[in-house]
Write a structure and sequence with these properties.
Layout: E1 6-15, E2 18-19, H1 21-30, E3 36-37, E4 48-49, H2 57-61, H3 63-68, H4 71-86, E5 99-104, H5 110-121, H6 132-136, H7 140-149, E6 155-158, H8 164-177, E7 183-191, H9 195-204, E8 232-241, H10 242-247, E9 254-263, H11 276-289, E10 298-300, H12 307-321, E11 327-328, H13 331-334, H14 341-355, E12 357-358, E13 381-382, E14 387-394, E15 398-405
Parallel strand pairs: 5-6, 5-7, 10-11, 10-14
Antiparallel strand pairs: 1-2, 1-8, 1-9, 3-4, 7-8, 9-15, 12-13, 14-15
Helix pairs in contact: 4-7, 8-14, 11-12
């Protein structure tokens, strides 16, 4: 490693296939969708989501702390604690002024608003929680993580829609390279399964309507895809300057080698049909990493399971790579965790490098004939991975790409 390399020394994950990195990775390898009927949505036409199984904040965080936080902060704190433990860091020993937190937040706390607006609209305004604002303002997720861990460096909330978690990694990398921090916890967290969230996306006609088969609803790149499934989760990485990691003999999972960010400036929700902004971000990330397309062995696709996004991403990958390397789409298993997706998928990409294995894309029965990609499906694919990309694209034409390399 070079002194200016950025090392990934810890991973923390809470996903719809399990609490913790090990459970999440195994769930991805199993390649079965976590989508299931959600009792909270019984009044909606679309009544299924991907939720974290058996997630009990009171047991994981303590009842007092859990009661103070909203659901997306619960997810972030659990993931952050795991990431710090995985990195072998002792919070009482680090220089807290040199530790930052940068987390992506997409739709923010719509679950909180759903509860409070319900009270307001039923003439129970006096029952609105005095903690509602503190729970819901975007900066409180990284702020609560910083408070929990005693991290006193920069604490930043990043919002670039569904690219938020990936953009957060880019900003964290810059903080480390500038010398502002020695350690940064970075990624994203979101709980996007509240009834109001589902209802809004349903009205936009972006969600799968496969109510007869929730488990088969999220199917990126499949010819029968009809939209995505909303999910919840958090993915957080511990990033360190390589010299800092080496000084404490830390285990390094991978290197964050390059980042690319762009804006389509095309449409408020739809991607540019040729993936113009995505191509820009992909090339920028490769240039930043000092790599050529031939050096990349795997792409973790944004893969939303919508016709426009899958096709635009396909065209972008073809434009950059010619013949792209093997692709997978974690959202087929986890659903779309919105602002948390980029952090989760970055962690999954790091694990692919660590285990030299690509997890499968669920529900890919027949590849869309207009998509020419080698999509890993059915079973995991062991393969040599020197470098891997993770793509995230969001409303507003936001594009973010990160490159990880093997150690």
């Amino acid at each position: 490693m070079r002194r200016d390399d950025i090392a990934v020394t810890g991973t923390g994950m809470v996903t719809p296939v399990g609490v913790g990195t090990e459970a999440s990775w195994q769930g991805l390898l199993d390649g079965r969708s976590a989508a299931a009927t959600d009792p909270r949505l019984d009044k909606l036409d679309i009544d299924f989501t991907c939720r974290v199984p058996g997630f009990e904040p009171g047991k994981l965080l303590g009842r007092a702390l859990a009661s103070r936080l909203d659901s997306h902060a619960h997810l972030a704190l659990v993931a952050a604690r795991e990431a710090v433990a995985d990195a072998g860091l002792a919070t009482e020993e680090w220089d807290a002024t040199r530790v930052g937190v940068v987390l992506g937040v997409g739709c923010n706390s719509l679950e909180q608003y759903h509860r409070e607006f319900g009270r307001l609209n039923s003439d129970r305004a006096k029952l609105i929680s005095p903690r509602a604002i503190v729970r819901s303002v975007p900066n409180m997720v990284p702020a609560e993580v910083a408070l929990d861990l005693g991290a006193r460096g920069p604490s930043l909330a990043v919002s670039t829609a569904c690219a938020s978690g990936t953009t957060a990694l880019s900003i964290a990398r810059d903080l480390l390279r500038s010398g502002s921090c020695d350690i940064v916890l970075a990624g994203g967290s979101e709980s996007g399964t509240a009834p109001v969230t589902v209802a809004c996306f349903q009205q936009m006609r972006t969600l799968s309507e496969r109510t007869h088969d929730p488990g088969g609803a999220s199917r990126p790149f499949d010819q029968d895809r009809d939209g995505f499934v909303l999910g919840e989760g958090a993915g957080i990485l511990v990033l360190e300057r390589a010299e800092h990691a080496a000084a404490r003999n830390a285990r390094v999972h991978a290197l964050l080698a390059g980042c690319g960010n762009s804006t389509d400036a095309h449409h408020v929700t739809a991607p540019h049909p040729e993936g113009r902004g995505a191509v820009q971000a992909l090339r920028q990330a490769l240039d930043d990493a000092g790599l050529t397309p031939a050096d990349v062995d795997h792409v973790n696709a944004h893969g939303t399971s919508t016709a426009l996004n899958d096709q635009a991403e396909h065209r972008a990958l073809r434009a950059v790579f010619g013949t792209p390397p093997p692709v997978t789409a974690n959202k087929s298993v986890l659903g779309h965790c919105l602002g948390g997706a980029g952090g989760i998928e970055a962690a999954a990409t790091v694990l692919s490098l660590r285990h030299q294995t690509i997890p499968p894309t669920a529900n890919l029965d027949t590849l869309d004939p207009d998509i020419d990609l080698d999509v890993v499906h059915k079973v995991p694919r062991p393969t040599r991975i020197r470098a891997a990309l993770s793509n995230s694209f969001g409303f507003g034409g936001q594009n973010a790409v990160v490159v990880f390399t093997a150690v």
